Amino acid sequence: MEFVSGYRDEFLDFAALLFGWFRKFVAERGAAAASVDGRWQQLETQIRRLPQDPALWVLHVLPNHSVGISLGQGAEPGPGPGLGAARLLGDEPPLHLRDLSPYVSFVSLEEGEEEEEEKEEEEENVEEEGADMEKVEPEEDGEPAPVSSETPQEANPPGEPEEAEQDAGGGEDGCREDRAEDEKGPERRKGRRSEAAPLHLSCLLLVTDEHGTILGIDLLMDGAQGSAGRVSGTENLAPRAYALLCHSMTCPMGSGDPRKPRQLTVGDAQLHRELESLVPRLGVKLAKTPMRTWGPQPGFTFASLRARTCHVCHRHSFEVKLTPCPQCSAVLYCGEACLRADWQRCPDDVSHRFWCPRLAAFMERAGELATLPFTYTAEVTSETFNKEAFLASRGLTRGYWTQLSMLIPGPGTPRHPWGSTPSLSLLLGGDPYQLLQGDGPALMPPLPPDPPRGLFGSWQDYYTWRGLSLDSPVAVLLTYPLTVYYVITHLVPQSFPELNIQNKQSLKIHVVEAGKEFDLVMVFWELLVLLPHVALELQFVGDGLPPESDQQHFTLQRNGPEVSARSGPGVSARLNSGTKEKGGHRDLQIKVSARPYHLLQGPKPDLVIGFNSGFGLKDTWLSSLPRLQSLRVPAFFTESSEYGCVMDDQTMAVATGGGTSPPQPNPFRSPFRLRAGDNCMPWYCNAFIFHLVYKPPQGNGARPAPRPAPPAPTPAAPPVPARRRRGEKKLRRGARRRR
């Protein structure tokens, strides 16, 4: 079995979900159009019987005049097979968003004077919307429909749909780095236009609820009905919009059963008028006036969708009914056929028959992993956790918080492509925690006047000493430095007491296969606070790091109350630590090596650490693990699930003949539960920690690693749902009576 929950980019799952739903919608819409009118009457009757959703639904109309989508074969733009639907939709899932960047890019459809004319039209549209903006009138029950809090300048006018589309999260929008690329000179864009023959998405129809959950989507390409005629691109859209609404009710893309809304509002005046005679046939109230601006609620966000998939056939929950395995409750299947196929896979150790009792044991740890001291624990550890809504409600939509979700950076946020070298010039304001801040008050309090007197072994202890409220979510970002701290102060002394690491005044640490943690590099500033008398050198190593960062080196330096950061000539910042330190102090050195770990040359480190490693998901580990075996340095790794720890142990055995220590829960794990697509297991960033157990130098190949307790006996037959078992018992009793 193989799970990529906790490793794969959420945006890729989001894109696959959009494509899967849209493909099904187009097929069923075509079948309905080819049938007689009785099919629509039957569908309308079915919708009228659906339960009512108390939430308001919104039909957004997003025209697009200026942005085209170029699908290329690789580094060169142009039409071609590109990545392939199979790889994108799950058969060979890319694990990182940057895998899409060579294949999908945005190109400008404007040239010369057309750009200026379009800009003038946009300004006129903004003024017209500002003059005509109205509120949706309250309904009879007295509950008002949502009103946008945006000014006309903040709303998305018809000429500026790009950011709205990025919010919507379409698959072709999946690369934020492409946005930066397309901001380059117009000459390059013109040349690419002629070579790439970009697709033009003329209009996007989007159905959401007031909380931001996407329920349906329709894409109108050039040449499609309604894509020509009026400038707004909404002429003759009523049949398509009506079909989209029907399908969104009977087959909602987001989580939840089929349902119809209490009330519907439409984002286009003409389409609103055309739907006035159609929507009541579904038993749905249509708002009296159209929605004039984008935001239906001040806290509106596009939520991380929780539509699950079958582990075997990858069909989504809007296509088939999914149920967990009756025995382990961990893996989701669409029926007995997929369960039986997974049960009988060969070789045996990849079959569900082999893994079922083990996964059942992993499921029993869910309560333990969800035991955290925060006031928001129940919300963020739930299987239905809406991460985007949680972050947006707290104003965490800028800085490092955008790395945790699909939210785009907020206004005024310094933007840089994912994976680029952190710009220390952004910290000229003097606050080392600037990128941890949100829109509200400061999240990090001033530093305590005295260094820690004891060792922290839990978030509760650390928050108390640091002066943090248990309502603060900064643990989600600080899980990385606090995990390093825990390894240094607790795990290395327990497992390698001969190193006497607590008495060392300097430590050289390699962070291997670094990626996301390097994008959050300033969070490691907290190590200067927790270990003030230790000089630390963190070297980030991995071929996933940006090549332009290779061999870069900068220092975070404490000079009394101030800290200076240098990243080569011409780049510096002064960071105020807020307190004057007593006694000696040390620096934090940051180095970058953009290469696989086995190709790294240099002094031997004191310690190696890897975050959410996934040994079995990247071939370079088969070379990096033997390199660690030869160095024989303490190497600690985290995983987002206990399943990942078992897979890492197997990979270590194949690569070196060694093994791993039994994993233990990390007290400084992230409190945010990660979304799992095809299973119900609890996944958390940095959930478990283990260290490598090396094969003895003169060993005969036998593995010395301590092994976990023997698993439960493997059942011989796949579990049968309870109803079927009861039915079989009745048949057997009837046969005995007849005999």
From TrEMBL:
Pro residues bias (residue ranges): 705-721
Gene Ontology biological process terms in this record: negative regulation of DNA-templated transcription; spermatid development
MYND-type domain residues: 310-356
SUPFAM superfamilies the record matches: HIT/MYND zinc finger-like (SSF144232)
Name of one Pfam family that matches: MSS51_C
Biased segments, Basic and acidic residues type: 173-188
PROSITE patterns linked: ZF_MYND_2 (PS50865)
PANTHER family per record: ZINC FINGER MYND DOMAIN-CONTAINING PROTEIN 15 (PTHR47085)
Name of protein: Zinc finger MYND-type containing 15
Native species: Equus caballus (Horse)
Gene that specifies this protein: ZMYND15
